[in-house]
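User: Let's play a game. I give you a shape written as tokens, and you guess the letters that built it. Ready? Here's round one.
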């Protein structure tokens, strides 16, 4: 007898003894031997799930996972240079891809642009430093509209104030032969796609995960 909670996850009538809400989160880590994975949550003001997650969720609480879903995974041949552009928690799926490349193809030509609203919103910066140590040629650029707490980027990592698309527009590398992976809110993704068009990255070489406003 299948567990009734899993039979119709999206449309089923919730059991009375569990609280029920469905949200999508990107897998934020490369596959691990023990099957565990990471998600990166941004707290949303007034948000039902994230308020609960930040204020009440505790070790041992049960969450039901459905997936993986979507089609934002690495599709490029191993010799293709890769550009990753993320905004906010759009960094999560990108982080998963880079983590995997650092493990299996560490000297690959890669570039990461990660933009956020305020520098205090950056998370897992120690990861970026670890990647830079393993792949010194990887260019990593952080961007934020505002700077707080005397923010200093980790060693070897670049920082520019502004939106991720405006900063990317100044990238001097010729990107015509690169594959690009772009993730984040729809508005930012659209602006990044315009920049990539100007930089002559062919449409079929651009992969996108857009969500939210
Ligand atoms: C493909 C995909 C991947 C995603 N990946 C991530 C990820 O990796 N990390 C991440 O943090 N998020 C991710 N998201 C967003 C995530 O799914 C949630 O939307 C987000 O966490 C907010 O959920 P919530 O329940 O806290 O907010 P909700 O309760 O759904 O509220 C969202 C907004 O609506 C407002 N609101 C709620 N109820 C009302 C009301 N009655 N009247 C007026 N306004 C209201 C809230 O104030 C808030 O601003 C992803 C979304 C998609 C589609």
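Assistant: Ready! My guess for every position:
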């Amino acid at each position: 007898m299948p567990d009734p909670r899993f039979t119709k996850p999206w449309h089923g009538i919730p059991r009375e003894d569990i609280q029920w809400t469905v949200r999508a989160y990107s897998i934020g880590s490369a596959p691990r031997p023990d099957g565990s994975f990471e998600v990166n949550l941004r707290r949303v003001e007034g948000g039902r799930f994230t308020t609960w997650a930040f204020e009440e969720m505790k070790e041992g609480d049960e969450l039901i996972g459905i997936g993986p879903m979507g089609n934002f995974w690495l599709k490029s041949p191993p010799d293709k240079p890769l550009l990753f552009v993320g905004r906010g928690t759009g960094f999560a799926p990108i982080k998963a891809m880079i983590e995997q490349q650092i493990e299996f193809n560490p000297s690959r030509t890669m570039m990461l642009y990660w933009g956020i609203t305020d520098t205090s919103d950056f998370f897992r910066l120690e990861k970026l430093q670890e990647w830079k140590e393993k792949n010194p040629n990887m260019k990593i650029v952080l961007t934020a509209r505002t700077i707080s707490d005397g923010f200093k980027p980790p060693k070897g990592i670049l920082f520019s104030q502004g939106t991720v698309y405006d900063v990317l527009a100044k990238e001097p590398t010729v990107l015509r032969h690169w594959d690009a992976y772009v993730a984040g809110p729809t508005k930012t993704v659209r602006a990044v796609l315009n920049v990539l068009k100007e930089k002559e990255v062919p449409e079929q070489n651009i992969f996108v995960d857009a969500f939210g406003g």
